[in-house]
Structures are given as structure tokens and as C-alpha cells.
Target: LacI family transcriptional regulator
Amino acid sequence: MTSIKQIAKEVGASVSTVSRALNGYHDVNPKTREKVIEAARNLNYFPSSAARSLVTKRTYMIGLFFGDNVNSGFEDPFFQKVLSAIRELVGDAGYDLLVFTNKNKERATYTTLCRERGVDGTILILTGREKQVNSQLTDLQNSGIPCVAIDVPLEGDRCTYVESDNFLGMKKAVSYLAGLGHRQIAFIGGDEVSKISLDRLNGYRSGLNDAGISYDPDLIEMGYYAKEYAELAVKNILKKNKKVTAFVCASDVMAFAAIETLQEEGCSVPGEASVIGFDDVNEAAGYHIPLTTVKQNKEEIGRAATEQLLKIIEDPALSPSPIMIPCELIVRQSAAEAPKKT
Amino acid sequence: MTSIKQIAKEVGASVSTVSRALNGYHDVNPKTREKVIEAARNLNYFPSSAARSLVTKRTYMIGLFFGDNVNSGFEDPFFQKVLSAIRELVGDAGYDLLVFTNKNKERATYTTLCRERGVDGTILILTGREKQVNSQLTDLQNSGIPCVAIDVPLEGDRCTYVESDNFLGMKKAVSYLAGLGHRQIAFIGGDEVSKISLDRLNGYRSGLNDAGISYDPDLIEMGYYAKEYAELAVKNILKKNKKVTAFVCASDVMAFAAIETLQEEGCSVPGEASVIGFDDVNEAAGYHIPLTTVKQNKEEIGRAATEQLLKIIEDPALSPSPIMIPCELIVRQSAAEAPKKT
DNA sequence: GTTTATTACAAAAACGTTTTTGGAAAACAA
DNA sequence: TTGTTTTCCAAAAACGTTTTTGTAATAAAC
Model:
């Protein structure tokens, strides 16, 4: 590594002058600046970000945490797109992305890890189903570290979150089904704890309500966003209620699982049963029965999260508020008119 | 940030003693060590990695570069799995992952970016189709920065690369088709420049050769790993040669495109034409015609790359050699016996 | 009871930057 | 001329660590 000292020696100036020349300060003679820049170029100089950040307190790194859920992270079909958007915007703004992966820190928390690396801000990509993370989250909320979470309610001085309008999204799906004549609409939910799951459930109930359909707990099962559990959920509902004609699912993977299970049980989709998913992942359109689903605007979520974070970083006084991104019902072929009663 | 100084003041010791106590040196009294650790815990102390790395020359960060290709990065279905494996192993080894995304550096190169951030090593995820990157690559090769590339031949003192056995993989596909009676086997290649594309082409030719089939340039088209180009390629081949009964493609996306195009042209798959892909992406198994394809062992590629990189970092004397990961033919339903001649 | 080893600590230098402060030289004003 | 700006630069402190070197105080050896 060539340092600022070597440049100083090269051009016969002091270290401070070189620094000021390189950083475009006004009180340096154009000629010396030229010489400095020339020398820097020749010596292939680039400033050590560690040394710099030690004094400036800025690293131009954005931290990234993934939930410990297996699907979370690079492989999750939903988060991929969110990530791409984040990557894009963060890069445009002149930051690099630090993905926290180190597993050898015993007592580390989100906060300590951020402080240790000195990231300027951080993005949390969680599912809301992580365990024993709550104390860490409140800790982070109070830390003053600029931070925005995705899908998980996080509010503080310099903290906020971004999510889809899960309530309205799910409501749209149910209203659509009701419009097609369905009255027995089952709900394959995510889980019983996370905000997004609860919002989707409430959207479902609100949709039923608007359509004048009474809520039947027998039609509710949780699928935990996993294929296996979703299959079980569908089977359970079929056992309890033979008359169900539609399934609305809290994710596309669960919708795929539902369709497969229904077909295995000899029930055609969408002829005898309609299925609607949530997310609109890549596979949804090309699925053998193109999936009708509630699309989450993933790019927009990533974009909003990044922009918000950058704003929080820029302006210490800003007190941010949560951002909600609209969902859109994508009509394809997995939901159709309710079968006529026989 | 609470610093080592504050701990020193707290316990009435010198800065150096605190440092040595925390780092487990032997020449510190057990009692003072206890006090120091206690204080560190109470003050919620974590060492500034910037300050530390300034003197130790280690950051415990692994750099990550993505090719500028659109598909490259978080969204590429192939690299996702590679990435997951990298993430896992890097984390186990006590490193974090620095994704280079900053676009505001004018004259930056791989090498300068690595030096600037001080990463201990770096992984290159490229496609081999990046433009004007060659000089940067040779620069990196000579830099002495530990580095392993994926799919792109990179060799140097502390540089190497990992790739699938593309030659043998493609050869297996062709041999399989030949075994099914196909004689007119078209090849939808990747591109004309990258090593992996060339290796796959050579595997194709070798497969033909072994089966006693002569090579026909009319059956070769490039699809540039993109849906649109692959469609064009298939149409061109159909124009030139009506008798072709099989298509082997250098990627799954191109295979999907081929199947769709064939069906549009009124040619049933696998009845009238067989199609084999390459990669075995997630969608392959669930595709409406489950795709027969050459599976790249993505997790293994990521694992090998990471392990190799860590070894290079550990041992400055090690001169690494390239690693080749075997491919496996996954037989599903998109390839069948050649139709009888009519 | 002196010499030698051992134990436990502190002081200071170093890493590569930025930033603050101060001041000489040059330019301008009177 | 003298006084006052302005222009340009250097010295030094600071950021938070690690590491090297030195040295008291204590323990062991004879």
C-alpha cells in the first residue's frame, strides 16, 4: 500500500498538504495540487478506508443482516429482488455493502456488530420469526444507528421499516374470489406471530367481511411459509370442510404446495378449487398453472428501504416513519369461478 | 463507542495492559484480567475493527465482486446457491462479506478497491463475458491479493479459480442423447469467448465424436445465456435443418426458451424433439416438462472456492491450482428416444 | 545475601488518515 | 513605508488499536 507519506516525500510537501490537495481543499496552490495528483496516480495511491474512517467516523459501508431462517438470505426468492434493488441504489450513492456473516462472536448483537465495523447504517432483512432477537432489536432501536428493517416493525430515533401493504393485498385476493362466487374460502397463513402474517390474516377477514361472508376458524391453517407445512394445512382443511372451493395463501411457495396437494387429492385447479398466492415470485408466471397471486413490489421495497436509510444517515435530525408499499393482484389462471353447487 | 482507554481508566490500568488482557496474552495477572473483562462487559466494549486492522493489516473481511452483467449478482439463479455456500463457510471461519457496489470511484480497479478496503481476500463472480476487464484481471493476478474466481480462468501467485467440469458435463448430455438414438443434435451455446462456453462446446463435439456423429456447423448457434437470443437460435437452426431431433443447451434458461419455441413451432417435446439444459436451476424440476439437464454442483463450487481462498490467506507460500467440480446428468422428461424415421 | 529469573505492568511508537492551529510569504491597502 | 489581508503550507494532535521495549517488584537459585 502506498501511503500519503510517500506521496509527500515524492513531491516534497507535507502530509497535511497532500491530504488537503487530494480532498480538494481550496487553500492549496494549483501547481502543487497537480503535482500531488500526478504522484498519487503514478504511485497507484488509494486511501486506506480504515485509517480514514478512524478519524472521520464514516466508512461508507452499509451493513446487512439476514434472519437466521434457512430461506432467508441470498436464496430466498422474495428477498433476492429486494436485495438487487438495495445493491443498486447503495452503489449509486457511493457505498459498499457489508454482509454480516461472522459466526465466531459470542456476545455480539446487531448493535455491537455495527459499531465494531463502523457501518454508516444498516438494513435488516428478517422474517419476523427469528427467535430471541427482540432484546437485540430494542437495543438497536435505541442505539442511534441508522437502520431500516424490512417486514419487521422497527421504530426509533433513527430506525424505521418498510413493508408491503399486506392487509390490503390479501383483502384484494379475497374480494376477487368472492367476486367469482366463492363463499368457502380457506386461508393458509404464514405464522401466528409476525406482523406481516397477522396483517395478511386481518386482510383476509376484512375481505370476507366486506363480502358478507362469516369467518370460520375451521378454514384457517398455518403453513409457516414452507412447502411441507402448507401441504399439511391443506389436508387438514379438506378433512374439516369438504365444501371449500378456494384457498388463499400467504406465499407463493405455499400456493404451489396447495395446488399440488389438491391435485393429488383428485381436486382440479382451478376447476374445482381456486388457489391464490402471495409474493409473485419468478416461478409464478411459468408455473404449469400460471399462478394468480398478490404481487409484492420487491424492487420498490428495496428502493424505499435504501432511500430511507440514506436519508436517515444524511440527516441526523430526521425522524423517519414507516413506509408501506402497495400490492397488486396479478390475475392468471389458478383462480376461476366457483363451481356450481350440485 | 467505548474505547480501550475508558476501560483502562475504569480499572486503573494502562491501555496496553487492557489490550493484552483482552487478547489473552500470558503476561497479565489473572485478577487484573478478570477486572478488565468485567469492565469491558459492563461498558459494552467491542474493538473498533478499523483501528485494529490499521495495525494488524487484517480486516477479516472477504471481498466479493460481481460481474457487470445484468443477471449476475443476487438474482442469477446459478450464483445464488454458490453465494449461499460462500456465505456459510466464510461466516464459519470468522469473516464478514464485503460486497463491492460503490460506483463512484473513477479509476478504481479490483486491486485498488481491495487494497482500499483492506479485504483479506476476494472472490470474483464473473461470467467471462465482461468487457475491458482483462487488464484489471492480470493486475489482480500480480497483486498478491488472495483471490479466487468462479468460472473464469485466473491463475497467479495467490490466485486461482473454480469451475464445473463443463467439458465432461456437456459430453455426458450428448452421449445420453446419442444413446437414445439421436443423430441430429443441435447445440445452443453460450458465447464465443468465455472459457466455460468453449469448454461446453468442446464437450459437445467430443460427445458427437465418441458416438461417431460428424460435426455439423449448421447445428451450432449461440444463445448468449438469454431467453430472447436462445429463441432466435432455435428458429435459425430449424430453418437450416428440418431433421434435427435434439437440442442441447448451455443453460437451463436457454433450454426453457428452446422448449417454448419448439412448442410454438408445433414441435412436441420430448416426442418430436428432445431438449437438455445445463445448470439444474430450481425451476428445472418443476417445469411443466421436467427438464433433463446437466447439474452443476453449485454448493460445492461455493464451498471449494471459499475453502481454497481461506487456505491461500492462511498460507502465503501456498501456490494454488485450479479446482474442477464434476457435473451430473439429471434425467427427467424433456429428453426421450429419437422419433422413428418416417 | 547476593545474583538471576520470572511476573506483571507501563510508556511509547506505529498504523494512515483528517483536522486544527499557527505562521511565513506574498499581495494589497493606506 | 507600514499595516493588513490573502495565499499557501507545515506541525502536531487525534482516531483506537497492537506491539515492542523497558523496568519495577517479586520469586527462585546459589
